[in-house]
């Protein structure tokens, strides 16, 4: 199974409109790092090395939604997480995308509903994701299905040179 080219291309075009310098993914890198396995296969593809912590070969999962005619029009890219506060597993939605021409037809809801059902089936604690502050249409949609803003939390990230420096042996200053 592969990432439908037009779906990926449109998703990157939409993302680059606001975040052009942040998008490093290509169709090839996505295909090589996403597990296209059926949902619910926890722990599939673990690799072990003497010198490294065990890590999933393809930690992300992807589900697609299709029109009745069989055309892929949306995707949800996600991974499993764990909440120490709830002592339960969950799902973190990394990316939800529905083609612009297919929005407001229930496809985004179907993708989120599928993930919610998976969380409930594994007796999980929550389904969570981040949304850019400027994306008001998405925020309104998420709130309409019961999602709550987490105003007490601040997103943090280490990437690029800061990540390499943090991973190194030296002292970070």
From TrEMBL:
Gene Ontology molecular function: N-acetyltransferase activity
One Pfam family linked to the record: Acetyltransf_1
Transferase listed as a keyword: yes
Annotated ranges, domain N-acetyltransferase: 10-169
Family as reported in the entry's similarity comment: Belongs to the acetyltransferase family.
Record carries keyword Transferase: yes
Family annotation (CDD domains): NAT_SF
Bilayer-spanning residue ranges: none
Protein name in UniProt: N-acetyltransferase domain-containing protein
Source organism of this protein record: Parascedosporium putredinis
UniProt KW keywords: Acyltransferase, Transferase
Top-level lineage group: Eukaryota
Span list, region Disordered: 1-20
InterPro entries: Acyl_CoA_acyltransferase, Diverse_Substrate_AcTransf, GNAT_dom
């Amino acid at each position: 199974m592969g990432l439908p080219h037009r779906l990926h291309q449109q998703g990157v075009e939409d993302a680059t409109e606001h975040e052009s310098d942040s998008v490093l993914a290509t169709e090839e890198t996505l295909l090589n790092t996403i597990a296209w396995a059926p949902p619910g296969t926890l722990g599939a593809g673990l690799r072990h090395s003497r010198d490294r912590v065990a890590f999933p070969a393809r930690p992300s999962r992807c589900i697609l939604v299709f029109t009745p005619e069989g055309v892929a029009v949306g995707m949800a890219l996600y991974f499993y997480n764990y909440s120490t506060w709830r002592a339960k597993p969950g799902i973190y939605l990394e990316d939800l995308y529905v083609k612009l021409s297919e929005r407001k037809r229930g496809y985004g809801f179907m993708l989120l509903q599928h993930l919610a059902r998976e969380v409930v089936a594994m007796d999980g604690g929550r389904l969570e994701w981040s949304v850019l502050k400027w994306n008001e249409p998405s925020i309104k949609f998420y709130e309409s299905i019961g999602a709550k803003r987490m105003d007490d939390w601040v997103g943090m990230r280490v990437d690029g040179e800061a990540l390499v420096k943090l991973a190194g042996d030296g002292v970070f200053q």
